[in-house]
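Hi support team,

I submitted a single chain yesterday and got back a structure, but I'm not sure I'm reading the token output correctly. Could someone confirm the output below corresponds to the sequence I sent? I've pasted both exactly as they appear in my results page.

Thanks,
R.
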Amino acid sequence: MIGRFRQALRASPPLAWAFLYFFCLLTGYYILRPVREAMSSSNDIRTIFPPEMIAFFAARGMALKDFTLQVIFTCVFLIMLLLQPLYGALVSRFPRRVFLPVVYGFFIVTLLGFYVMFDSGVAGRGMAFILWITVFNLFAVAVFWSFMADVFSDAQARASYGYIGAAGTLGALAGPLLTRLLVDRIGIANLMLVSAGFLLMCLLCIYRLRWWAVQREQAHHLASGEVPMGGDILGGLKLIAREPLLRWMAVMVVSGVGVGTLLYNEQAAIARAAFSTADQSTRYFSGIDLAVNGLTLVVQLLLTRMLLTRYGIAPALLIPGAAIILGYAALAASPLPMMVAIVQVVTRAGEFSLAKPARETIYTRVPREWRYKAGAAIDTVIYRGGDLSFVWLHKLLSAFGSQVVFGAGLVVASGMTAGALCLLRQASKLPAERPHTS
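Hi R., thanks for writing in. Yes, this is the structure output for that exact sequence:
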């Protein structure tokens, strides 16, 4: 395994910097993720929401704590709608060397603001932080993969994306470990500064990787990312509406969000009924996270590269869908906590280790506007629109029991697999990358 990784590093010099970039990015995120979970599960509603918001709901006879997730998901979607034209203007009017540092610089500066908020105990900091970290996770990761499609060709992506994904998984393991080691010593506020340090490392990686992006663009006569790409600030959404490949990419993402959201919310309800103490629930959820990260890492290191280089993207897109269909069929028949845990592990690991790298390799063969604008729109607005729809759908379906929820999930999973087949058909029409000519 290590020998193959070393060979891949020799064959693709930018892989080392891409590996470090994604590791630092997800380490920085996962340092803060436990803070988000602590905020969202707090029994003190004043920690999560501003006093004015609590009073607004109370005046209308509604307990805000009964709709915490629904309110937060709705707010996230509205924020995505507001940010999409701003992001579109940024990538349209400025070259890559400007807008990439601006995106990460914005998140670093806001982390300094959260340091002040948590250090001084500002009321409502929980909701502000939950909204921020959700936006950060989607935009920062979307920009990362768009940039990787500038750096790597289609063939290089198939050989490298499994290892790059493994770097993210290692970051997902390192982040919570650092939080566990540091939070009692330095406090939550100072964790913001630790995370900001990892994002500064991301800026260094961007600076080093730009050279390979420029070299690839020049060698293959591609549109340069060193000049503004121009176009409409809402060009991403318009491209999704116009281009069949992007529409099917959006269908796959929404379907994937659907099966994940239905499973996540129903899992919480089943765990509340099955476990009588917080300690039992914590052990259950921590075991799932450990299994997800472990299985993801194994698949990324042993199977992803082999599947993508030998067989293309089809197996990596179809295998997770087939596994989810089987899992949801089993859950519809027998929604037991252990079965839920198994399906959760398979669903999340399949997305992280196979489906996501396969989808991202497609972006190496499309125009830059498609990946920076349409790709970002799919991973932010479309993603959160699906999240919002399914979190409210679960609220409705849960009244009829777990079997109804999982039956609906089975339909969505089938739609995801059908979407993968249509996406493969559209991807087969894309031209191969032109070879280097001197």
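A quick pointer for reading it: The chain has 15 helices and no strands. Let us know if anything else looks off.

Best,
Support desk
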